[in-house]
Amino acid sequence: MVNCLSTEEMYDFIDGRLDESMTQIDTHIQSCANCSALFEELLETEHALCTMFPPVNVDATFTNQVMDQLPKEKTELPKKRNWRATFATVFVTAALLFLVFSILQKESSTSSPSVMIRVKDVKVTDTLIEVTLTTSGYNGGELFFNESNEGNVNDVSLVLPNGETQSIGSYAEPSTNEITYGFSLFDVPYPEFKLVFDFKHIYDIDGQWSFEVPIDRKELLAKTKDITLHSSFKRDGIDVNFIRAQHGPYNSSFKFETKFTDDMATFIEQQVAQYTADLPLAEKDAYVGYNAQILYEVINADGKTLKRSIPEDNINIQNDRYAHTDTLSTYPSIRDGGHLSVIGAKFELPTNVRHPLTVDQLPYTFTYKDTEYEVKLLPDQRLEISSDAKSATISSWDITVDHKIAWDTARFRRDKEKKYTTFTIKKDIQLDSFILYGQTETRYVYFDKPIDVDVH
């Protein structure tokens, strides 16, 4: 039996310094809401520190500009300073330097009479570009992009110095007055280019907002190694093929594909056929989303564990026979030696959870595998599903009305005892009756012996 870990013990576990069985501790973290939340928080903090302040190219006058804007300090420091104070000083100084650089280098643009957009921040690492946009002049309650708006009214493209335009993959995190775009550089070989933003609808406003963000990554690209991998294995129902590795000075990225073995895929097909045998054809579309992912650790040349995978953060693209997925993950760099240690697999498998409900039946409770789930109606046409944070296995849900997806957005949160999924129902849906599906449940399998993967 493994007890809950303190913050110090959790850091030791992340760094591979604990003597106790890693599998036992990992199993405990997966089943304990408190330890799981602490684990994810520490990993996010660690990654943020690694990538927050990438190196930048500056001209010869930059140092003088920075020094002129910094407060004057005494040249003599106290003799006694502990490591925490030293770290805090370095961190704050780095933040100030980066902030000043951003102010000096930033390019902004505007358009539209009522709402203005400007580039608040640009961060370039060896694996990622993050561009944060901010607005002024809007006082409504919508997000930067209204998620119900579809179509190619807002576009971001990559433009090369010769004028050639290419598409570039991105994710976006909108809030009320800001949006942060993230662009993966894994498949971008160019040292210089522009990101061109062209928006025609933001919030609930039509207009025209166009601007460019120049990117120079020559120095970082020169320090990055790109390697084709030739490793694959099949184990306990999962089939894995490693495709590429990219090692920069600060981050290593790995691209691999995972799918079920043939026997596992056949078993899942049989399960789905059993669960849907008596259902109309239109309803069978709700039974999707099954996939297999690997759990692994990133080990450096000295045998130290730098980081452990979080499959929820991976980019997955479903394309054939139960989610043959391409996954791209980024971790601290092991450019100078190291490997991946695959310790197990995570499966998203079908369930037979299906509840035809009416609004008059809410709140409604049901039990699945000894865990109680509650469905509640919230204000503003929202449905909330709650369950015990430690024992719940259902990982994704679907809600349909007349065999069509009925929800617009889904938000997740958890506390020490419960986890919650809150769905916002589409505005054009009359929510008198609906069908709730527990689409997938999560299962973990840990290997008796880790599989080491050469990524060099």
Structure description:
With 456 residues, this protein is of the alpha+beta class. It folds into four domains: 7-51, no CATH class; 116-220, bacillus anthracis domain (Immunoglobulin-like), CATH 2.60.40.1630; 224-346 and 445-454, Immunoglobulin-like (Sandwich), CATH 2.60.40; 351-444, Streptococcus thermophilus LMG 18311 protein like (3-Layer(aba) Sandwich), CATH 3.40.1720. The chain is built from seven helices and 23 strands. The strands form five sheets. It has a six-stranded antiparallel β-sheet. The longest helix is centred in the first third of the chain and has 23 residues, at 83-105. The radius of gyration is 25 Å and the shape is globular. The model is unreliable at 47-67, 69-109 and 315-319 (pLDDT under 50).
Q: How are the SSEs ordered, and which strands pair?
A:
Layout: H1 7-14, H2 22-31, H3 33-51, H4 62-69, H5 83-105, E1 116-124, E2 128-136, E3 154-159, E4 165-167, E5 170-174, E6 178-184, E7 192-202, E8 205-216, H6 218-222, E9 225-235, E10 238-247, E11 251-260, H7 262-276, E12 291-300, E13 305-308, E14 325-332, E15 338-358, E16 364-368, E17 371-378, E18 382-388, E19 394-401, E20 404-405, E21 407-414, E22 418-425, E23 433-454
Antiparallel strand pairs: 1-2, 2-6, 3-4, 3-7, 5-6, 7-8, 9-10, 10-11, 11-14, 12-13, 12-15, 15-23, 16-17, 17-18, 18-22, 19-20, 19-23, 21-22
Helix pairs in contact: 1-3, 2-3
